[in-house]
Write a structure and sequence with these properties.
By secondary structure, the chain is an alpha/beta fold. Helices cover 35% and strands 14% of the residues.
């Protein structure tokens, strides 16, 4: 078949936050026709680096490329002309994505619920820092403050808790909200198939991230025990053993020692013994989990030394061959040479139709047996599809 999952679906993207831009791009990735509405000076992300070729410019923002690939672009000055200019776009749209907070919506003369009433089949997706209601609805926002206020940031950092929490890379708070918004938008579209009616979906970045604290909330609700942030490990009420191991080539592997797993323990000891690194671990006393737990420090030191005598990729592949859940710690630039991603054709060439030529873009995140993948297309030029 030549159809894609969202072929025929029309989405209008009014976002000025990445959370909304990313949501709309995910629909474009699966075949939807997404129209990016931009102000005359371009979307906010056009002004954010890094820049293709190191040259700042509205058409060179890699941030804009990332979150707007596959979309169309029209220019509308909503600040000067009001929301009435949107009517031709919304009249036959299936979904509109917006990220303005209530005060800004009022300035623009836009109300999600009025839009829903005016266009009954339209699914109106609002993704805002704190939702459309509540005492914080118009508070200022950044990705870092979102992670902080919602709880995840307190769980990100190092074993040394005198060091403040550490912000994870990228707009993680907004990506989290995008994931929840995508689920909600799909549910609203499915409901529309039954009723013929759209609805307003109010997604709070704050609320989405409050759902993303792993076991932090349950431990406190049920046991009144706070979790402790730990270096490259899940936050837990007690300190767990380190799971990141340095290797001879300067890379790292991730391996969690689960001492109670007898099968994995025997595999690990045999592997270490073959390398002459098992030392006293072959002693039958270590077959007893209680004995292992009592000597956890010594075991940890031996495993650290064991990984230090081999390079990370070799340790990763050999550990997996033996059935151990070992992972290689890849940097983003390492992914372009990842043999598994290469074998699956994950990165695909995209012609930028500019001096930057053809570049690699991430391909589909999931594959369907009933649909072909939508072809990857570059991000649009500013106003490229504006009516004459």
């Amino acid at each position: 078949m030549t159809m894609q999952p969202f072929s025929g679906l029309k989405v209008v993207d009014l976002s000025d936050l990445i959370a909304g831009e990313f949501l709309a791009r995910l629909f474009a990735d699966m075949g939807a026709e997404v129209t990016r509405v931009e102000p005359p000076d371009g979307a906010r992300t056009r002004h954010v680096g890094p820049w293709a070729g190191g040259a700042p410019g509205l058409e060179n923002s890699l941030t804009f490329w990332t979150y707007n690939a596959g979309k169309r672009s029209v220019v509308l000055d909503l600040s000067a002309e009001g929301g009435g200019r949107l009517a031709p776009l919304l009249a036959d749209a299936d979904m509109v994505v917006m990220t303005w907070q209530p005060a800004r919506l009022a300035e623009l003369g836009l109300d999600p619920y009025e839009l829903s009433a005016r266009y009954p089949r339209l699914v109106v997706v609002s993704v805002t820092p704190f939702g459309l209601t509540g005492p914080w609805a118009d508070y200022r926002f950044s990705d870092l403050t979102a992670l902080a206020a919602a709880g995840p940031l307190a769980q990100c950092g190092y074993d040394d808790r005198s060091v403040p929490p550490v912000n994870p890379g990228g707009p993680q708070a907004q990506h989290t909200a995008t994931a929840f918004a995508r689920i909600g938008a799909l549910a609203a579209l499915i409901e529309r198939q039954a009723t013929g009616l759209g609805q307003v979906l109010d997604v709070s970045i704050h609320g989405a991230n409050a759902m993303n604290t792993e076991l932090g909330v349950p431990f406190w609700l049920y046991n009144r025990v706070p979790v402790l942030r730990q270096t490259c490990r899940h936050a837990q009420p007690v300190v767990t053993q380190p799971a990141m191991f340095a290797c001879a080539d300067g890379s790292y592997v991730y391996y969690t020692l689960i001492l109670a797993d007898q099968h994995s323990w025997k595999i690990l000891v045999q592997w270490m013994d073959e390398a002459g690194m098992a030392a006293m671990l072959t002693d039958p006393a270590f077959d007893d989990v209680l004995h292992r737990q009592a000597h956890m420090g010594q075991i940890q030191e031996l495993v650290e030394c064991f990984f230090l005598i081999q390079d990370g990729h070799t340790a990763y592949l050999e550990g997996q061959r033996r059935g151990l859940p070992i992972g290689i710690v890849n940097a983003p630039e390492d992914l372009l040479e990842d043999e598994h991603l290469k074998a699956r054709g994950f990165f695909v060439p995209v012609d930028t139709e500019s001096e930057h030529g053809t570049v690699l873009f991430p391909g589909e995140s999931c594959r369907f047996s009933a649909w072909n993948p939508a072809p990857r297309r570059r991000a649009p030029r500013l106003g490229e599809n504006s009516p004459e």
